[in-house]
From TrEMBL:
GTP-binding found in the keyword field: no
Record bears the keyword Oxidoreductase: yes
Gene Ontology MF terms: oxidoreductase activity, acting on paired donors, with incorporation or reduction of molecular oxygen
SUPFAM superfamilies (UniProt xref): Bacterial luciferase-like
Upper classification of the organism: Bacteria, Bacillati, Actinomycetota, Actinomycetes, Micromonosporales
Native species: Rugosimonospora africana
Residue span, Luciferase-like domain: 4-291
Family matches, as CDD domains: Tetrahydromethanopterin_reductase
One Pfam family recorded for the sequence: Bac_luciferase
Protein name: LLM class F420-dependent oxidoreductase
Keywords, comma-separated and alphabetical: Oxidoreductase
TM stretches of this protein: none
Highest rank taxon of the organism: Bacteria
Length: 319
């Protein structure tokens, strides 16, 4: 049976609000919550970007049974992989084993704050090497690593769950699917692509969870929802190869300035219509995803969305 998650989108909410939203999402019946991990918002209109790991710690303490996940953390530039492993182990303990470490190769927007952004080929090699450090640390091994990009003379996690911490790996093509199957307990994808699920399973990921994320903009006024989605999420139309390279919210806004409101509404369902929101989620279910996280556009609309999810959307999806 498919499980449904709520997105704690730090780009559009401050830290205290995110914790409050997580508590409300658990009460509404969401199975899990995922947290973005950014240094910048995508565009200035979103207006926020607190430190995700402090938020996750607070959410772990404030919730009781909803599972948690970073969605996703880049373990190559802002964070050294050995430190990512330590953070993940700590959140797993605070949440009493409700945490999955979601990892990806990152984007210039958030990682350039500590230095230059490598070419995609180098980024993928760095990501693979980071996984070689993180995975054994999380299962209790002492790591000695002298690689192309990272040096770990000696590292061991002193506080971690005995059973380790599950890892989810973001995928976009055959190479990343192979990496996810080798190092991940789950795959993560930003599009409802059945070919990624099939590739992941073919590489050895059979019967492992497959996580997706769908963006919607629920509200009673469809025209207002369309405006909000266009102001805050027009960049989705650029595609990941472009989004991963742009260095700032200003450049993201300029690059997506030609994207129209109608184009955004084709990819983000807007307004009060239950059926269109269900249809957007169903694309992932039909493509073979086992877990789907919902992202509600608009910081101030989270309360209304969570009420809608509890009373209408989640029951409809589960039926």
């Amino acid at each position: 049976m498919t499980e449904f998650g709520y997105t704690l989108l730090g780009e559009q909410r401050g830290p205290r609000r995110l914790v409050e939203d997580a508590v409300r999402a658990e009460a509404a019946g969401f199975d899990f919550a995922v947290s973005s991990d950014h240094y910048y918002p995508w565009v200035e209109e979103q207006g926020h970007s607190p430190y995700a790991w402090a938020v996750l710690g607070a959410v772990a303490h404030a919730t009781e049974h909803m599972r948690l996940m970073s969605f996703v953390t880049c373990p190559t530039r802002r964070y050294h992989p050995a430190i990512v492993a330590q953070k993940a182990a700590t959140i797993a303990l605070l949440s009493e084993n409700r945490f999955t470490l979601g990892l990806g190769a990152g984007e210039n927007l958030n990682e350039h704050v500590v230095g230059g952004w490598p070419h995609a080929t180098a980024r993928h090699r760095m990501f693979a090497e980071a996984l070689q450090i993180i995975q054994p640390l999380l299962v209790g091994q002492t790591v000695h690593h002298d690689g192309e990009y990272f040096e770990v003379p000696e590292a061991r996690l002193w506080d971690r769950p005995v059973e380790g911490v599950p890892i989810g790996v973001a995928v976009s093509g055959p190479d990343s699917c192979e990496l996810a199957a080798a190092y991940g307990d789950a795959m993560i994808a930003a599009e409802p692509r059945a070919d990624l699920v099939q590739e992941f399973e073919a590489r050895g990921g059979v019967r492992r969870p497959r996580y997706g994320q769908v963006t919607i903009c629920y509200g009673q006024d469809e025209s207002r929802c369309r405006r909000t989605a266009h102001q805050q999420f027009a960049y989705l139309g650029l595609g990941w190869p472009v989004m991963s390279e742009l260095p700032s919210p200003v450049s993201m806004a300029k690059a997506s300035s030609a994207v129209t409101e109608d184009q955004v509404a084709l990819t983000i369902p807007c307004g009060p219509d239950l059926d269109q929101h269900v249809a957007a989620v169903r694309k992932y279910i039909d493509s073979g995803f086992t877990h789907v996280a919902l992202t509600q556009v608009g910081g101030e609309s989270q309360g209304a969305f969570l009420d809608f999810a509890e009373k209408e959307l989640l029951p409809a999806l589960r039926s």
